[in-house]
Amino acid sequence: MEGQNAPKKLRVAIIGAGPAGLGAAIEFQKLSFVDFRIYDQATVLREVGTGISLQPNTWRLLDLLDASRNISPDEIFRPNDQHSVQHRNGRTGELIVSHGPRATVANHLHARCFRSVLQKALLSIVDKSRLRLSSRLVKVVESASKTLSLHFEDGFVDEVDLLIGADGVRSVVRKFAFPDHKISYIGRTAYRAILPAEDILSIPNFPDAVTFWHGPTDWVYTCNLNGGKYEITVNAVEPADNARVSWGEKATLEEFRRPWKDFGPTVQAVINKVTDVQKFALFAGPRLDTVVARGAIALVGDASHPLSGAFGNGAGFALEDSYALTRSVSWAQLRGHSLKDALDLYDRVRSPHYHELYKILDEFSASDAVQKENNLSFDEAVAHTISGKWGAEYTWLYDYNIQDVWTKAAEAEDTDRLSRDTRHNVERVSHLYTVSVVAFTAFCLPGMFGALNGLGAAGEETATLSNIANAVVFGVMTVGGFFSGIICNRIGVRGTLVIGTFGPTLLAHANSFDRSLVSIASLYTNAAFGNTSNLGSWFPVFGAVTCGISAVFLWTASGAINLVVPAINHRGRAVATKFTLQNLGSAIGGMISLGLNAHGDYRGRVSNATYFTFTSIMCLALPLAATIPLPSQVRRSDGSRVIQHKFNSYQDEVKNLKKVLSLKVFFLIVPFLIYYQWDLSYMWNWNAAYHTVRARALLSTLFYLVGPAIIGQVQGWLLDKKEWSRPKRARWGVTLFTIVTALVWIYGLVVQYQYDKQEKVIDITDAVFVKSCLLFILYGLIENSGMVIAYWIIGSLGLEPGQVSSFVGLANGLGGLGSTLAFVLGAVNVSLTWQLWANVITFLSSIPGLLYIGWFMVVDDNVIQRATTIAVTSTSIAESSASSGHEHEQYVYCAKDYGSLGNV
């Protein structure tokens, strides 16, 4: 949420609305910390020129931008033979080289289309309110604070932190960034024409393919564009005195036909079909050593590599630049780095790529030099040119995967920064340690009490007393859940976690998570001395109150930590690990209890030693909780840092709570939050009612060990599987949970009605005990899975940390309400059959809301990442963009000497 203290947004100006500019705009739309505008000098956006190639690397990026869906198969051309490009002798028509398809995915095969098709596909995704046409950039002023003031021809002025030059080979932005860089005419001109396809295909034996017809130095390019149109492009030498600094000027047929007198009849027939043609003088400039400047300027597309050609991959290069730049800006923001750091990473990714491209051009020049030296014939020169310039060794340009390259570069930079950070070992702690502390406190506290409660009746002979105590515990949690998030936001997660483990020491020196030592001690006192002691029956209830107070804090802290602190694709496993250790603790506790009560082949309470053992283990939680690092001290595995919720006032926190309460998703998930802890009362009471002490201990062990501790980790891993989108994981997760849980409850009903007729208490030596084991394992599975799903969904809604704390607190309160009602049913001696039906009814009532949330309301990872990760250093993008004050001009650039070129 943004308030008065929210960081200023990064102000970005994109000059040029071609593929590079539109691609950058689409990606910047996904970054909530960016405020951008696109400027173009055109009054109406239209693509100058004819066709454009869509190579495999281009298609991959169009998929990523979600733009490929906007390109109809009817709008592109792919040859029937699936060959990407044919190279023929322009005199004889002989096919010399034919490069076959390189893409492994059918819809990524090379295609050709009108430039307007690509522009339309990209423009349809861009927020049009951010596009300003008729905006010709004429002056750029750099202030002392490094912000840039952009002055346009119509008098409009914009001040930005980042200026992106997407304005073509004759870039105005590049001229400002590199004042000494000059472009010049290269002595070649391209001519382009569009003809009816039937005119071209009527030429005898004409290949309907993407074809180059080569001469010694010039070439003719023919390609179907679908829609009944054929593209003719030629590239020929033209003296400088005949060329003009223009783009898309109408040419005469005489100058168009002049270079092709030595070409064969097929090419001559093509040339003679042309009746209207445009010319494009080709310009290039010195190679750039870098594609960034002044810590605030980035060049993308043709502006970043001022060459006369792009290997039929100009759109791919442009979108690769835009992807690498926007990802680098996001990378820097998430890690608290500066804008300069972002641009440096972008430069480290793209400049080496263009240097490799320059090497290819050097090889081309060497090939041309050899041809000139040897005075080759037409056919010899063509063969030499094709073998030297159009071999398969250059096709890697089209298979280039910018996503992999950028990811490796970012990972290398993260690793390098960590190794150079001399403070890292002192101040920065891995998020894995934080997750481990939460998990081990869960092992010590709810794990041990879970083992005790898993015995049924909290180890007592009957469940009445434990049902009353548990009802009080969860009743207190119900009330406390509405306030625990606010307190957590005020004192921080570490303080909240410590309070949750410490409890009211003045009265009982109790630790608690979900249940406290006061509760354990009170149950033990009641068991050892009976209600005739001085403490009487009030002590268990008092212990339950203190337990509930402490528990709600620890539940809130653990949820807030696991849903915010770990890296985005570790949070499912963090939640699962917490419950795994919790349930492993319960399983081990069950084993301890089984060992201490191995001869208890009777219905009754457990031994006193069981209580003492559990209490000793629980005492370890407090010192563990005190070591948990602050969020600002945590370094995630991806190098990013954790957002810190800023507490302003209790009034603001109450408003924040009200906003959470007003969310549609909150109302939808309420039934499930009431259900997901309802089931424990019935499960524990069922164990106590039908089994001997040692059977109860074994069932408790299996309940926590098999489903939660083992399968729970698998569930967490699947929920974090980044190969699937988070919405897809959510849909599969809630659907499978619903199906499995429904089947388990059906089986539970069958067993319950059978056990209603059971007169003899069941021991581990009885054959029917196998049925008890299977059912209790399944109960453990669905009980744990429900909690993991609930927490994971809360963390998948795109909420900021303060809202997460409030939501988790409310979830604990509603879960406590469900548990309270369930334990009340047990306390008033409602039959187990009706307790089971209460579980089934609450489950069925919760499913519609759960499925709707899972299918339609879970957001993508990038939304969650933005909400839970911000810059925390003084040189961050957010803070550097917030600088203000009087501007002192350090550098002024006017475009008057370059004005005739405009923003291409």
TrEMBL record:
Domain of life: Eukaryota
Keywords tagged on the record: FAD, Flavoprotein, Membrane, Oxidoreductase, Transmembrane, Transmembrane helix
TM region positions: 432-456, 468-487, 541-568, 580-599, 611-631, 660-678, 698-718, 730-748, 768-794, 806-828, 834-858
GO biological process: secondary metabolite biosynthetic process
GO molecular function, one term: FAD binding
Domain FAD-binding: from-to ranges: 10-355
InterPro entries on file: FAD-bd, FAD/NAD-bd_sf, FAD_monoxygenase, MFS_trans_sf
Name of the protein described by the UniProt record: UNC93-like protein C922,05c
Natural source organism: Talaromyces islandicus (Penicillium islandicum)
